[in-house]
Write a structure and sequence with these properties.
By secondary structure, the protein is an alpha+beta fold. It has helices at about 45-60, 80-100, 150-155, 160-175, 175-185, 200-205, 230-235, 240-250, 260-265, 285-295; strands at about 10, 20-25, 30-35, 65-75, 100-110, 115-125, 140, 190-195, 215-220, 250-255, 275-280, 300-305, 310-314.
């Protein structure tokens, strides 16, 4: 797409950041983004909350504070309006927790239901956290476990256990607010969230296109939701994971002894995934403490390098 040429547009589409940022004053900018998803669970209220958390996350991934949102709904006239009310109630609960005002929305008819939000947040122009900016030696952290795409596939196939489903729903429903606050406090050098392109895809975006920056991932340290390994072995791999592998595997090298255990996890498309943070080594202890103080378990999953590739090592 052709970006607007305007000095007020501080962040546009060129680097695939999580949201656009528009300067309003010397000390104020607005971050705005939009996202919607199809159902990932059967319960409409849970789906609504997950979809809203997924949409709001993009503001947190820029280091912003959500301010207001518009509901985006695609709905079939064959589905009862009571179900839609439940979806919207779930979205409202996530927005309320984020301190985000739902100011309205738009609905159109569609055979397949979809729900999400267009979200506006505030941010200081000098404190924007972009997805690029990491340096070799920076540490790589992830704030949520991986595997929501795999577990959602297992849930749809009615193969996921109750505890596995509960863990997936809890992870997808939780906001990235506290992880964002910890990243700001550290401070992080770069930040994004892991969603549809999977860990490998969003990490590739952090590396940029010049081919100089790389990352070493600690394969056995990649956090995963309960049951993910079992369902991977059963073949519960979403189609998006294969598309992500086709798109991003050219820059990925996996040690053979761990390939079967981690390959599809790297490409698994996440819904409302965690924040992926580049933290300078001398700020790592503070980041971990800030996260722990807010009840967030962050995992150190790798380190940035100057090798240009994503290398997954044991």
């Amino acid at each position: 797409m052709a970006p607007s040429v305007d000095p007020r547009l501080l962040v546009g589409p060129q680097t695939f950041d999580d949201g656009a940022v528009l300067a309003m004053r010397d000390d104020l900018a607005i971050c705005f983004t939009a996202d919607f998803i199809t159902p990932v669970v059967d319960d409409p209220r849970q789906w609504g909350r997950i979809a809203a958390a997924n949409s709001i996350s993009d503001v947190y991934a820029m280091g912003g504070q959500p301010l207001a949102a518009l509901n985006l709904v695609c709905w079939s006239n064959c589905l009862p309006p009571e179900l839609l009310a439940e979806v919207l109630a779930g979205g409202a609960s996530a927005a309320a927790e984020a301190g985000c005002i739902i100011a309205g929305g738009h609905t159109l008819e569609d055979k397949e239901p979809k729900y999400g939000m267009a979200v506006i947040g505030t941010i200081h122009p000098d404190r924007i956290l972009r997805n690029q900016g990491a340096l070799p030696g920076d540490l790589l952290y992830l704030s949520k476990p991986l595997g929501t795409g795999i577990l959602a596939t297992a849930i749809k196939a009615e193969l996921a256990g109750a505890e596995e489903t509960e863990a997936a729903v809890e992870s997808m429903s939780s906001l990235n607010r506290q992880a964002c606050e910890a990243a700001i406090a550290a401070p992080a050098r770069a930040l994004t969230d892991v969603t549809g392109f999977g860990l490998a895809g969003h990490l590739t975006e952090m590396l940029g296109e010049d081919g100089h920056l790389g990352a070493d991932l600690f394969g056995r340290s990649l956090p995963r939701l309960p049951g993910v390994d079992r369902h991977m072995e059963m073949g519960m791999i979403p189609g998006g994971a294969y598309r992500n592998r086709d798109a991003y595997s050219g820059r990925v090298r996996i040690a053979e002894e761990i390939r079967s255990a981690v390959e599809m996890l790297l490409y698994d498309p996440q819904t409302s995934g965690g924040l992926l943070a580049a933290i300078p080594p001398d700020s790592a202890d503070r980041f971990e403490q800030e996260a722990a103080d807010r009840g967030v378990k962050v995992s150190r999953i790798g380190r940035f390098s100057d090798q240009g590739l994503i290398k997954v090592v044991p």
